[in-house]
Amino acid sequence: MSINISIILQMVIFLLVILLLTQLLFRPFIQLLKRREEAIQGSRRRAEELLAKATEMMARYQEGIAQAKRRALEERERLRSEALNFESRLISEAKEEMARDLEGLKLRIQAESDLAREALRGQAEAIATEVAEKLLGRRLKG
Fold it and tell me: 142 CB contacts (<8 Å, ≥6 apart)?
């Protein structure tokens, strides 16, 4: 019977040790593992949220850059168009001014040419008379 009591006593001690170890070591360790797992999961969720937020911000940034490029291209095209219109107006105005100046010069040349012709006509008659008088050797009536 002594064997049975010692076995029972050993079993009781073993159960007490198991109970003590469970209360003092295993439960706190399991709770620590659970808290650690929860912290890891929380950190993962937070990292996923931050990644999603960063991805969204990057998409907004890229869209902003694309819009800025579109606006810059539109502005450049508008300025180019204005410059071409301005250039066209300047060329047109210069052509008109040149045409007016050319017409004025033509009229002035024509008037001077007419005056020169008249002056030369008078001189031509005098020279012709003088040449004729020298050739004939006498004075012409006139």
Answer: 129
Task: Using DSSP, state whether 140 is helix, strand or coil.
Answer: coil
For the entire predicted model, the pTM comes to 0.47
CA distance 49 to 86: 55
pLDDT in tens, the chain (142 residues): 556 788 888 899 999 999 998 888 889 999 999 999 999 999 999 999 999 999 999 999 999 999 999 999 999 999 999 999 999 999 999 999 999 999 999 999 999 888 888 888 878 888 888 888 888 888 877 5
Please list, residue by residue across 19-57, b when 16 or more beta carbons sit within 10 angstroms of its beta carbon and e when fewer do.
eeeeeeeeeeeeeeeeeeeeeeeeeeeeeeeeeeeeeee
Give every CB contact of residue 140 below 8 A, 6+ residues apart in sequence. Answer: 129, 132, 133
Torsion angle, alpha carbons of 37, 42, 46, 49, to 10: 100
> Alpha helices of the chain — where are they, by DSSP H?
2-21, 27-136
